[in-house]
């Protein structure tokens, strides 16, 4: 049975563009040195003209310490990161039908967790802003002491807090890092979105969050059928 589901946060539970594009833009607006602003934006993978994070931006999948390390010598990263996080809390937007899906899963007895390469405190702020605090048993970030994705540490720590044993938990994410982390943690992996790398690696693929409910039911029914078949086979062999 599926006892726990671990989610990536940005791009999976949250609408990535709506939550982060303007937040990052606001942080770049505060950099007065034009050359430093342009150079750091290029390294950050941010288009200053369109005010959007580009698909190849390390901010999409790398941990915050790695991303900030790229521009540390060019700008005041402490102020930069603080601005991004403050503005994101004001703009945080859930992915379509995420709230309804999460509530349904919890109502069906599934425990939920987050494993994000964002910081734990920012993840908890986002969860709180969306009224999700009571829905999540565990929230882990790159700085929670278990390493960052694609390593398995934070997923393993999260499912332990959920009381889930091997074979009873899923990892849902939109990036290659998410799927690799899930595989390393022994999870059944589910890719959501359009990242072809993630889609090609995952055990299952969904286009939208609500499809996860049907997938969980399918996997649970499949497990029940396999158990029934195994019991039947054992009886025949015993005879």
Describe this structure in words.
- Helix 1 runs antiparallel to helix 4 and helix 4 runs parallel beside helix 6.
- The C terminus is likely disordered.
- It contains ten helices and eight strands.
- The radius of gyration is 20 Å and the shape is elongated.
- The protein is of the alpha/beta class and 239 residues long.
Task: Summarize the topology.
Layout: E1 4-7, H1 16-29, H2 34-44, E2 46-47, E3 52-53, H3 64-71, H4 77-91, H5 98-107, E4 111-115, H6 120-129, E5 136-140, H7 153-162, E6 169-173, H8 176-184, E7 188-192, H9 196-201, E8 204-206, H10 211-238
Parallel strand pairs: 1-4, 1-6, 4-5, 6-7, 7-8
Antiparallel strand pairs: 2-3
């Amino acid at each position: 049975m599926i006892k726990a589901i671990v989610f990536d946060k940005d791009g999976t539970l949250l609408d990535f563009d709506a939550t982060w594009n303007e937040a990052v833009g606001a942080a770049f607006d505060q950099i007065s040195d034009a050359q430093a602003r342009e150079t750091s934006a290029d390294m950050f993978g941010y288009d200053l003209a369109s005010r959007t994070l580009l698909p190849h931006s390390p901010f999409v999948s790398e941990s915050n310490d790695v991303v900030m390390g790229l521009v540390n010598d060019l700008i005041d990263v402490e102020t930069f990161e603080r601005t991004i996080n403050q503005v994101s809390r004001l703009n945080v937007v859930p992915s379509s039908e995420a709230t309804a899906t999460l509530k349904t899963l919890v109502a069906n007895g599934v425990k939920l967790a987050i494993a994000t390469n964002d910081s734990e405190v920012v993840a908890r702020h986002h969860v709180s802003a969306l009224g999700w605090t009571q829905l999540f048993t565990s929230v882990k970030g790159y700085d929670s002491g278990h390493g960052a994705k694609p390593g398995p540490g934070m997923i393993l720590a999260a499912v332990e807090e959920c009381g889930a044993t091997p074979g009873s938990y899923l990892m849902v994410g939109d990036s290659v890092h998410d799927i690799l982390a899930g595989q390393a943690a022994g999870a059944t992996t589910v890719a959501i979105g359009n990242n072809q790398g993630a889609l090609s690696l995952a055990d299952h693929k969904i286009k939208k969050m609500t499809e996860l409910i049907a997938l969980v039911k399918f996997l649970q029914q499949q497990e029940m059928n396999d158990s029934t078949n195994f019991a039947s086979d054992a009886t025949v062999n015993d005879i």
